[in-house]
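Q: I'm a student working through a structural biology exercise. My instructor gave each of us a protein and asked us to get a predicted structure, then write a short paragraph describing it. Mine is Lipoyl-binding domain-containing protein. I'm not confident about reading structure output yet, so if you can add a plain explanation after the C-alpha cells, that would really help. Here is the sequence I was given:
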Amino acid sequence: MLPTAQYLHGLRSGEEVEIEIDPGKRLLVGVQSVSEVDERGLRTVMCTLNGRLRPVVTVDESADVDVRAAEKADPSRAGHVAAPFAGVVSLAVAEGDAVEAGATVATIEAMKMEAAITTSIAGTVRRVAIGGQQQVEGGDLLVVVE
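A: Happy to help. First, here is the predicted structure for Lipoyl-binding domain-containing protein. I'll explain a few features afterward.
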C-alpha cells in the first residue's frame, strides 16, 4: 500500500518509498527525474523499481498542446489501407491514382527493415490520410481505395 502523503502528492525527484503489494512482498519505488513535456504532451519519468532504472512515458494533462490524433483504419472496410506496425511510411500513390489489387501503395520502414504495404482491392485512391513521408503507429489509416 502506498503511504498517504505519496498517494496524495506523488513522489518528488530523488525520493524513494517502500510499497507493500502483498503480505511479505515489498517494492522499493523511486523517481529519479521527470523530462520536460514534448510536443505531444508526453513526459518521460525515470523511475527506479527495486533499484533498476525504468523509463515511464505518461501524458501530462496540464500541458497545453494541440495534437491531432491519427485516424485509425476501419478493418471492416476493404478499401482502408492501414499501417501494419509502427514505423516511417512513404507513400507510393496520390489521390486519383488507379491501383490494382495487390499493388504497393506505400512502404514502411522500422528497425532498419522495409516492407511494402499493399491494397487488397482494385480501384481509385480517393483519399490520402497522411503526408508523403510520416511516422505512424500500427492501425493508422494511410489511404482509402474505392
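A: Here are two points you could use in your paragraph. The mean pLDDT is 90. The longest helix spans residues 4-9. It's a good idea to check both against the output above yourself.
Q: Great, thank you!
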